[in-house]
From TrEMBL:
This is N-acetyltransferase domain-containing protein. Signal peptide: none annotated. Residues 53-190 form the N-acetyltransferase domain. The keyword Zinc does not apply. The keyword Transferase applies. GO terms for cellular component: cytoplasm. Gene3D superfamilies: 3.40.630.30. GO terms for molecular function: N-acetyltransferase activity. It comes from Rhynchospora pubera. CDD domains: NAT_SF. Keywords: Acyltransferase, Transferase.
Amino acid sequence: MHSYINIRSPLLRSTILPLSLRRYITPRYTPTAVASLSISIPDSELSARGFSINYSTTNLDPSALNDVFASVGFPRRDTARLNLALSHSSGSLVWLSRTTDPTKPVAFARATGDGVFNAVVWDVVVDPSYQGIGLGKAVMERVIADLREKGIVNIALYAEPRVISFYRPLGFIPDPDGIKGMVYSRRNLQKKKR
């Protein structure tokens, strides 16, 4: 079962939004404020450790990304459809590769959204042989910073219960004030028809 997780901040004091919505969104950040956000592993350190930071799908091998998905238990995706999904990731996209193998991702995260208010983070994965050294946090911090820089005020994601503790230090909380995410499911519709 997935939990709906939403990032929020008590710092927002908007007079435009209804009181009931004020507590569920993050404040609008300026580029200066984003620059001051904490990044746990600076770009220079990632580079010194042999990693390249990528912010587009240029040079990304979708088959290698599918391999990482499969290695963490995500389903493999049809390559043509995966390419289409990646091309629609206009919210933010960050992936790390080894400098010695620049097309193969070792950590990946992307977000989609309306480009103004809302974004949803998807496909946060780290190759198992690179887990535990901060790469997942590195890509997530950069996705969040990129979205905040664009003024995105509501960032959500779905997470397996076993990884919720990974997202909490990044500012995400599960089911804020009882808010539940809902997912349209063809499987549930098929069960009703039987």
